[in-house]
Amino acid sequence: MWQEVEQLKGAEYFRKALTVHLHWSPEITEMLRAGNKLQCSRFILAVGHNAASFLSAYVLASANWDAVGRAVAWNERSRSATGQSGEESACVFYRHKDDLSVLICHVTCYIAEDQLFQWTEKVFDCLQSRELTATVLSDRSVADYKTAEYLSSSSAPFLRSLHSSAFSDQPVCQSLEQPNIITGLPAAVLNHCQVNRIAAVVYHCYNDVSGPDSVTVETYRPVLSTLGRSIQADCSPSADVLRRFVRSSEIQSNLYI
Predict the structure, then answer these.
(1) Would you say which domain of life the source belongs to (predicted)?
(2) Which of 2, 12, 45, 107 has the smallest set of CB atoms within 10 Å of its CB?
(3) What confidence tens digit (pLDDT) does each residue in 69-82 have?
(4) Which residues contact 141 (CB under 8 A, 6 or more apart)?
(5) What is 181-236 written as a DSSP string?
(6) Could you write out the DSSP letters of every residue in 64-132?
């Protein structure tokens, strides 16, 4: 009997551990408690180190942004990879100081498959969906790209796009060809936007490196023109700025060629 009780306790702990928790600033917390939602016209989501480094170097390097929240999605893979507890997060939300309707989110941690739907539902439940446009930046190995043509080593990195039916603008690159698909959090967000008739576009960067590098980061540059007038992006950050955002992964890399 006691063994069954312990098993139930373990199952309950595991269920709670897999729950995605959102932690907002006191101002936003009070607003959400009052039944209001964030008045967000543009939500920009960067999934992965290259996409996050791009926004950090080209957009967030200015003093126009405040960190207003974070998401905690604890799972065994993220814990073993980072050595951090569930209270620490690599998923941070930033809001524009002058245009409060612009929200950016960095996701550089692993989110388990059974957490994707929960993360997407909880985040978008905090945002008003009327006139909302979601832009997702992500990356994946070029080895996963399927094509009938020969793909030379000089072809990568390159961008491909997918968008919801409510997205009426012209993407900055060609559409992702069949039978290629997107997976993970970008797919969960795009699916949510498609079902709820929210304008959304995913820009997927295929690269041939194991970690973030300046060449892959700069591949996202065409997206800058689509992010809105209120976002004063640095179109040509210095080499030192770019190096600052890719150096940490290079130091930790154990790959020798």
Answers:
(1) Eukaryota
(2) 2
(3) 999 988 776 554 44
(4) 206, 207, 208
(5) ---HHHHHHHHHHHHTT-EEEEEEEEES-SS--HHHHHTTGGGGGGS-TT----SS
(6) -EEEEEEEE---HHHHHHH---TT--SEEEEEESS-TTEEEEEE-S---HHHHHHHHHHHHHTB--TT-
- pLDDT of residue 254 exceeding 80, the answer is no
Cα dihedral 211, 179, 77, 123 sign: positive
With 50 as the cut, is the pLDDT of residue 252 above it?
A: no
The token pair that represents 257 in the structure block: 């060629």
* pLDDT tens-place string over residues 36-80: 999 999 999 999 999 999 999 889 888 789 999 999 988 776 554
pLDDT in tens, 148-160: 776 665 678 999 9
CA dist., res. 257 & res. 99, Å (int)? 46
Phi and psi dihedrals of 87, rounded to 5?
-80, -15
Asked whether the beta carbons of 70 and 92 are under 8 A apart, the reply is: yes
Contact indicator for 43, 133 with CB cutoff of 8 Å = yes
Average pLDDT over residues 10-24: 67
- Per DSSP, 175 falls in state B
